[in-house]
Design goal:
Strand order of the largest sheet: 6-3-8-2-9-1-11-10
Shape: globular
Organism: Streptomyces caeruleatus
Strand content: 15-25%
Number of domains: 1
Protein name: 2,3-dihydroxyphenylpropionate/2,3-dihydroxicinnamic acid 1,2-dioxygenase
Cofactor: Fe(2+)
Largest sheet: 8 strands, mixed
CATH superfamily: LigB-like
Helix content: 25-40%
CATH topology: Protocatechuate 4,5-dioxygenase, Chain B
Radius of gyration: 18 Å
Order of helices and strands: EHEEEEHEEHEHEHHHHHEE
GO molecular function: 3-carboxyethylcatechol 2,3-dioxygenase activity; ferrous iron binding
Bound molecules: the ligand O=C(O)/C=C/c1cccc(O)c1O, fe (ii) ion
Distance between the termini: 13 Å
Family: Belongs to the LigB/MhpB extradiol dioxygenase family.
Structural class: alpha/beta
Length: about 300
């Protein structure tokens, strides 16, 4: 088995609320580097760790993580809609392998995903149906959240199970780093919002457009500095990237949910996808980070990072 990893921040505001041209050019160069890395690695299977933003997972049942044997994207914020090219046999094998290793994985035979999954597949592969993929939802938004050590355990178990597949496997992380977008919170929500977060009734096109416009406006406010949201935290983000680069994954076990939210904002928990992906790569052997890009981009409500890594 050969393994590699890519971490890529997502933002639904890309292309809708863009920063200055020089920032865009630097991001474009980093993304082009990641694309070349992926092309060169030529994965036979992508294990994609990503969060959801109340499009697929709701409080009626909210697992800490869940692996899909089939998945379709809703197409929020203009992302691609439709079925993902899930490798169902590989997904079943990984699910069994993770459960055999004592991690209580939930499985979905019809997962609904949003831009968190669609965007990295579109950016790196040109579409959500171009490469065999095993989607793994990692809750990074809906509290309560469990200890980060369990995410590391999930990533390790997936990596060990993937090693048995004897294929070129790319572990791909979508999300984070520090950011505090206006994703709704159940605690204290008015009854109508609480009901939507619990039941997950699909929004009408008008409701979806209104919700998306709210996020676009929040990005404008964030960029203008006139907001109550927790600012992007480059020091915290770079500490995370340092630990990933140095293979110090056990360091994350002492990171607390409250501390992460305080330092990185309500959606900083999306870094769980990164921790899972790098734990998977580490489980296959020693690795080296081969590229690392970071920039705070308030217009996208994102501590925006792109990193690539492969086994030594
Ligand atoms: O409201 C949403 O669905 C998502 C918002 C958002 C904004 C910026 C960065 C992210 O990672 C997000 O999920
Ligand atoms: Fe997100």
């Amino acid at each position: 088995m050969t393994a590699a990893a890519v971490g890529l921040s997502h933002s639904p505001l890309i292309g809708k609320n863009d920063p200055e041209a020089d920032v865009l050019a630097r991001v474009g160069k980093a993304v082009d580097g990641a694309k070349a890395f992926v092309r060169d690695f030529d994965p036979e299977l992508v294990v994609l760790y990503a969060p959801d933003h109340y499009n697929g997972f709701f409080y009626k049942e909210m697992p800490p993580f869940c692996l899909a044997t089939e998945a379709h994207a809703v197409g929020d914020f203009g992302s691609q809609a439709g079925p993902l090219s899930v490798d169902t046999d590989a997904a079943r094998a990984l699910a069994q392998g993770v459960l055999d290793r004592g991690v209580d994985l939930t499985v979905s035979a019809r997962m609904t995903v949003d831009h968190g999954f669609a965007q990295p597949l579109e950016v790196l592969f040109g579409g959500i149906d171009r490469v065999p993929v095993v989607p793994v939802f990692v809750n990074g938004v809906a509290t309560p959240l469990g200890p980060v050590s369990r995410i590391r355990a999930l990533g390790t178990a997936v990596g060990e199970a993937a090693a048995a597949l004897d294929r070129r496997v790319l572990f791909l992380a979508s999300g984070g780093l520090s950011h505090d977008p206006p994703v709704p919170v159940l605690d204290g929500a008015p009854p109508r919002v609480a009901d939507a977060l619990i039941e997950g009734r699909p929004p009408t096109p008008e409701q979806r457009a209104k919700g998306e416009q709210r996020v676009v406006q929040a990005g404008r406010d964030y960029a203008a500095g006139s907001t109550a949201m927790i600012p992007v935290n480059p020091a915290w983000d770079n500490r995370l990237l340092d630990h990933l680069e140095n293979g110090e994954l056990a360091e994350f076990d002492s990171w607390t949910v409250a501390g992460m939210a305080r330092e990185g904002g309500g959606s900083a928990h999306e870094v769980r996808s990164w921790i899972a992906a790098f734990a998977s790569l580490a489980a296959t052997g020693p690795y080296a980070m081969t590229s690392r890009f970071y920039e705070p981009i308030p217009a996208w409500i994102a501590g925006f990072a792109v990193a690539t890594a492969r086994e030594r």
